């Protein structure tokens, strides 16, 4: 892939020893880096914490030759066209397209359920990362907005309440009222039972997904292809986050290591191919940081969103 103009990809910042803590951003980074690994095409990687700079008000998004492309699926499709590997009508391409849609829903939902739906995982993981990255006042409203966007995706799929805890007070201590009875041992037992049930439901969803993906690798290095495709990067992004993100309760890594080692090895392979230890093998990439909008602009955006949500 060789073009005169530089490609600029805006993503959520790196964390947990990965190029990004966001599953869509990570998938796009991996694929773009692999396409540019021969050094013939340079690109700029911009770590951004302001999704409103994107035409879709979400990250990642890509700028190239006067175009702005939002959503990971559109970015991956655009990069595939630049590579001259646009999905065709052959059986293999049709299968990859179908599996790509499956991964974009089922496996990504599973990943986001672990990172966002479980309150304890969210507090020690994504929320902690955002708290260190975001300036005032964005750190007070943007994490909640992002989590609500994930929730809106997971709830219709039945993935939001898999490992849910009591969140009514949003991390605040419950106010005691006169004559309230103290929590009993029965309450603690119920909590333990609910946690065990939630864990098993999460593992059941994971097994269903991995059981379908595992045979696609067979004895090959990549999914349904002899070379890397967007499907590989989508799967790898999910698995890398499931295995590397900081979480409090996550049974998925142990499940992968014990029963689905090929999928785990595949994700490690994609990451090492995209970011090899040999510096000479890396693409010509410029890493920058996008400046956040000033506090007044951020506050104006927040007020506008509140008014819009109330009016709707």
Write the layout of secondary structure elements.
Elements: E1 7-11, H1 23-35, E2 43-47, E3 61-64, E4 67-70, H2 72-82, H3 91-117, H4 119-124, H5 126-133, H6 138-154, H7 185-217, H8 230-244, H9 252-259, H10 261-274, E5 285-289, H11 295-311
Parallel strand pairs: 1-2, 2-5
Antiparallel strand pairs: 1-3, 3-4
Keywords: Membrane, Mitochondrion, Mitochondrion outer membrane, Protein transport, Transport
Domain Mitochondrial outer membrane transport complex Sam37/metaxin N-terminal: 25-147
InterPro entries: Glutathione-S-Trfase_C_sf (IPR036282), Mito_Protein_Transport_Metaxin (IPR050931), Sam37/metaxin_N (IPR019564)
Describe the fold and architecture:
Helix 1 runs parallel beside helix 2 (72-82). Helix 1 (23-35) links the parallel strand 1 (7-11) and strand 2. This protein has one domain (7-172, 182-311): Glutathione S-transferase Yfyf (Class Pi), Chain A, domain 2, CATH 1.20.1050. The radius of gyration is 21 Å and the shape is globular. By secondary structure, it is an alpha/beta fold. Strands 4-3-1-2-5 form a 5-stranded mixed beta sheet, with helices on one face. The protein has helices at 23-35, 72-82, 91-117, 119-124, 126-133, 138-154, 185-217, 230-244, 252-259, 261-274, 295-311, and strands spanning 7-11, 43-47, 61-64, 67-70, 285-289.
